[in-house]
Write a structure and sequence with these properties.
36 strands; five-stranded antiparallel sheet; about 575 residues
């Protein structure tokens, strides 16, 4: 990240000093080309650079070496490169601590922090928001000479006695689950392997939890099919995990799982006697949902031949989020409305009746989470968040007044995020283009949002000299495309400013407002940063995604071009000082 920003800042500085390299005179290395033809959707596509996909090829290795030599020769000519690197590091590492998204059990809070300089992660808990924090675990306590662990996810039991913690060895996603005795700050001896998507879900009143486990590796073939035949199991604290009973699997749960690639997750909510299984299928964000009595699941009264699971929805109903309170299920569906609607299901016997609580048009329903008495729904419009509170007893809806215009996150960044918070208050994080990520909590009794104090801000956290402009520009076909423009208030709009324009535009993923400490150096040296919310992303819902998808894909780059032309026409920059950035599918 530092290297990329360093390159941009050097380029920007060169432009300002009128010492631009004449790029036409650079002798770029050449690669021997071999044309390969493929037929895609009835068209012949010729690829002259297929050779580059084989990085073991002798010619490719030589080409890469020449590219590196050329790059180093140019960068080493820049006298101020080291001082610029120090500026970037000073901003990026201005605070040593990252993290602090809490998981709540009544008034107790559990949260993890990453300490950058020490290269260590720790887990803390507090008996209340204002109580003294207590350190209960650090990753160095399980390190050995060959393994370093990172915290991948964690979930406290309902009484706060135990913490199931997913640990990632040596940067791998193939996590293990360890259990922490909170009072004694002790790691218990049992280990659950192959828990990349562990999703530990504790059973109220018991020292046991459900979890998802990938298949056991017994052969080379198993290594290649590791994501096939995932299982949900039940673990009791103190037992050998090798003997954990299988609850859901492809072989015994055909009413739930239609393919070996399906991954099941079992969730137990705090205010219901129902257990809900959600099944993820491939790269789609949509899940199928079934439910069952928790007591019958634990007591094993159901049998393979007589499925006891009842269906809430299929993947065709395009469900992305859900919550359960009592015998009522709340689901986010995109089937009837491409921008989403919140639907309420009555889980009453075999029949399900439903009603629509929220139906959107100009914004997107992006996420939901349940607390002890409320459902909270996050709405998104042009990359900015709004929050609605719904009373589970009366269905009354109320807007939550946020501290500023920005983007909120309701759940920690776990591989499979939790859908409930066992707390009377809601905890979330919030940030914007010019405001650092911080932790907040909402007290529904006072109807107030305040800082939680769990996260720590750095010295550059809320720069007063950085301003944000949100506009909508007209694309090639008359469609309005959102464009975010961030720059220093000291910048003159004279067409001379080096500008970085970025977009993604794939998979329905939004480029939401976020704070990047590394960009401060760029902005304060006179650079402009802009984000084009092009079609193919999710800023305006499923229809916005589909408008830049497959046959409509040209809209993605044409929207980007229209945003670039707007920046030039309105004197933010010029064509010679405008850089385009796209990563992965956004490339």
């Amino acid at each position: 990240k530092i290297l990329g920003l360093l390159m941009l800042s050097i380029s920007m500085h060169s432009c300002k000093q009128n010492v631009e390299t004449d790029y036409m005179k650079i002798n770029y290395p050449e690669i021997q080309t071999t044309s390969v033809s493929d037929r895609y959707f009835g068209k012949i596509i010729v690829d002259k650079y297929r050779t580059l996909e084989d990085i073991q090829n002798k010619n490719v290795k030589e080409w890469l070496h020449k590219e590196k030599t050329l790059t180093d020769s140019l960068l080493n000519r820049i006298s101020y490169r080291d001082s610029l690197k120090l500026k970037l590091e000073d901003a990026i590492f201005s605070t040593n601590v990252r993290g602090g998204f809490p998981r709540a059990v009544n008034k107790k809070l559990f949260y993890a922090r990453l300490f950058l300089k020490e290269r260590i992660e720790k887990i803390f808990y507090r008996d209340s928001l204002t109580a003294q924090e207590v350190e209960i675990f650090d990753t160095h306590s399980v390190n050995d000479s060959n393994t370093t662990y990172d915290i991948y996810y964690f979930e406290p039991s309902y009484d706060g006695k135990y913490l199931a913690c997913g640990l990632s060895p040596n940067g791998s996603e193939m996590s293990i689950i360890k259990i922490i005795d909170v009072a004694n700050k002790k790691i218990l001896p049992e280990t659950i392997e192959r828990a990349a998507y562990g999703n530990p879900s504790w059973i109220p009143g018991q020292s046991s939890f459900f979890y998802t486990q990938l298949k056991e590796i017994k052969s080379k073939s198993d290594e290649q099919t590791i994501y096939e035949d995932s299982k949900v199991k039940l673990h009791v604290v103190g037992n050998d995990s090798n003997n954990d009973p299988e609850i859901i699997s492809y072989s015994r749960s055909k009413e739930l799982i239609s393919s070996k690639l399906d991954i099941p997750f079992l969730t137990v909510f705090p205010n219901t006697d129902m257990a809900v299984v959600s099944v993820a299928r491939g790269s789609t964000p949509y899940v199928s949902l079934h439910y069952i009595s928790l007591n019958s699941l634990i007591s094993k009264k159901h049998s393979i031949n007589e499925p006891a699971w009842k269906q809430i929805c299929t993947p065709d109903e395009m469900i992305t989020g859900f919550a359960v309170y009592g015998h009522t299920a709340y689901v986010l569906s995109f089937h009837k409305n491409p921008n989403g609607c919140l639907m309420k299901y009555d889980l009453n016997g075999k029949s399900l009746t439903n009603e629509i609580l929220i139906n959107t048009k100009d914004e997107v329903l992006e996420d939901l989470i349940q607390t002890q008495n409320y459902i909270y729904v996050k709405r998104l419009k042009n990359g900015f968040s709004q929050l609605t509170r719904i009373d589970v007893h009366s269905n009354e809806q109320r807007e939550v007044e946020l501290p500023f215009t920005g983007y909120i996150t309701l759940k920690p960044p776990f591989p499979y995020p939790p859908f409930f918070l066992n707390s009377p208050s809601l905890f979330f994080t919030m940030e914007s283009w010019n405001k650092e990520l911080n932790g907040y909590y909402y007290d529904p009794n006072l109807n107030q949002v305040a800082e939680s104090g769990i996260r720590t801000s750095g010295k550059y956290g809320n720069p007063a000299d950085i301003i944000v402009k949100e506009v909508e520009i007209v694309s090639h076909d008359g469609v309005a495309v959102p464009l975010s423009i961030i720059h220093s208030k000291n910048v003159s709009l004279d067409g001379t400013n080096p500008t970085l324009l970025e977009a993604y535009g794939s998979y329905g993923i939004s480029m939401n407002s976020h704070f990047d400490l590394g960009l401060l150096t760029w902005l304060r040296m006179g650079g402009i940063y802009a984000v084009a919310h092009v079609r193919g992303g999710g800023e305006k819902g499923d229809s916005w995604y589909k408008a830049g998808y497959k046959a409509n894909k040209p809209n993605t780059w044409k929207d980007f071009i229209a945003c670039a032309e707007y920046l030039i026409k309105n004197k933010y920059t010029s064509s010679t000082k405008l850089a385009a950035k796209g990563v992965s599918a956004g490339g």
